[in-house]
Write a structure and sequence with these properties.
Layout lengths: L1 H6 L1 H20 L14 E2 L16 H10 L1 H4 L13 H6 L3 H10 L7 H13 L6 H5 L1 H7 L6 H4 L6 H4 L2 E3 L1 H10 L13 E2 L1 E2 L2 E2 L7 E3 L7
Parallel strand pairs: 1-2
Antiparallel strand pairs: 2-6, 3-6, 4-5
Organism: Persicirhabdus sediminis
InterPro entries: Transposase_17_sf
GO molecular function: DNA binding; transposase activity
């Protein structure tokens, strides 16, 4: 029973939060929930197979999740650029943290010692090709008209995406459909396929990586 808890991340975090909450409430003389929400976990594909994404740049689900986490302070309107938030991995890497640099190099599938050569690649995933410059600011309206209001992958990551926290899995279409077939009994009988493209406000994201999400456990759509 105890081994099962420590070998299952979800159960381990659940018990850790419960025990800490009881200790904290007792120590500070308070009652009620301590955390804002329940612990959630999402399966993320870490493949580096470029053929699944039809793009010259190996932008995978793991890249998207990493950038999404580093953009948390931007979505919270704490800073306008993640490099200015000292507690995010990207800022720590820029400040010289070897652990953070090694971690981001792992995400980019490059040698751990090549951070200086590849730091710009990760920044483009965070900021996008429209990294802020005076010229881009002047032509913002023209660019918006040219793309017909479509959202770029970098811009999409700056907004809260429910698929990254409420989904079951994130990855390429083949990966998601394989997970769907493996756990077919946990979905509704009318459901024919598992992979659903990640969208924003009902509009498909114009992402060359073509990330898909698996949602709807317990028979929901």
């Amino acid at each position: 029973k105890y081994k099962e808890r420590f070998c299952n991340l979800e159960k381990f975090v659940k018990e850790l939060k419960e025990r800490y909450s009881r200790w904290y409430n007792k120590t500070h003389g308070r009652r009620g929930a301590l955390w804002m929400g329940r612990y959630k976990s999402v399966l993320v594909e870490s493949t580096n197979k470029a053929e699944e994404y039809e793009t010259g740049e190996d932008f995978t689900a793991l890249h998207a999740i990493s950038a999404y986490i580093d953009l948390n302070p931007v979505r919270a309107c704490i800073v306008s650029d993640p490099k200015d938030y000292r507690w995010c991995g990207y800022a720590a890497a820029l400040a010289g943290s070897k652990r953070c640099r090694y971690g981001l190099c792992e995400v980019m599938r490059v040698a751990q010692t090549s951070w200086k050569k590849n730091a710009h690649r990760y920044r483009l995933w965070l900021i996008g090709d429209a990294a802020v410059t005076d010229e881009n600011a002047k032509s913002q309206l023209e660019n918006e008209r040219a793309r017909e209001g479509k959202i770029s992958p970098a811009e999409l990551l700056r907004h809260k995406i429910k698929y990254f926290t409420d989904g079951v899995a994130i990855g390429g279409k083949a990966f998601i459909n394989n997970q769907f077939r493996t756990h077919r009994k946990k979905f509704g009988k009318k459901r024919k396929q598992g992979a659903k493209p990640i969208t924003s406000a009902g509009q498909p994201a114009e992402s060359p990586s073509k990330l898909y999400s698996l949602r709807g456990f317990h028979g929901s759509s």
